[in-house]
Amino acid sequence: MSSKVLMDLYGSLKGRGCPTVVSIFYLVVVVVVVVVVVVLVVVVVVVVIVVVVVVVVVVVVVVVVVIVVVVVV
Description:
Elements: H1 2-15, H2 20-72
Helix pairs in contact: 1-2
């Protein structure tokens, strides 16, 4: 699907009379931007997952400590 979009973009740029080098440059820019956005989204998702896991672990530890303190006292 993404290759079709890139080929459509390439065709539209070429159709406007842009030189092939300029068309290829624009394609490279589009690919780089897409890759950067995908990497950023993956990093954000990983960070969110790590934060959620840390929060869950902290909550479980606090609950266990409270239960132990209540049972011992």
